Amino acid sequence: xxxxxxxxxxxxxxxxxxxxxxxxxxxxxxxxxxxxxxxxxxxxxxxxxxxxxxxxxxxxxxxxxxxxxxxxxxxxxxxxxxxxxxxxxxxxxxxxxxxxxxxxxxxxxxxxxxxxxxxxxxxxxxxxxxxxxxxxxxxxxxxxxxxxxxxxxxxxxxxxxxxxxxxxxxxxxxxxxxxxxxxxxxxxxxxxxxx
Length: 195
What we know:
Blueprint: E1 4-17, H1 18-30, E2 35-39, E3 45-50, E4 56-64, E5 67-76, H2 79-91, E6 95-102, E7 106-112, E8 115-123, E9 126-132, H3 136-145, H4 148-169, H5 173-194
Antiparallel strand pairs: 1-5, 1-6, 2-3, 3-4, 4-5, 6-7, 7-8, 8-9
């Protein structure tokens, strides 16, 4: 099995309440991660994690009203920190683009609301889709809620009723022929829509 060289959080977005921010920090403390929390004068916070070689990974949380928002990128080589970041993104319903870097290829994971929605393998210039989430239930529900066909069926039925009344009132054979032709078209369309 290929050994992962690093994991890069290219685009990360976490939005945490004050309670979730405390839980986020506690998650790293519980797993013996070396970290420092810096509270800045404007209420923003920086969570500084130490990677294997003593390299600092800084996660800046900007305070916006009652939430802390972390947007940015970082590169992590420590397996423990990689797993903790993955768990944090999932637990706190974050969004991220994550590059898991191996010697000969890169796996790109897309997270939305804490769940993996897409995985792509990149080898050189070649990309291969491994997984993509499809909201089948949502698509079916959307399709079920579409009512355009029902509206068109009602309009055609109304047109057919009007044409039949008009046909019964007409005595001119040529006009009746045109009405019959139009009725044929409408009944065919109605048959197609109801099928």
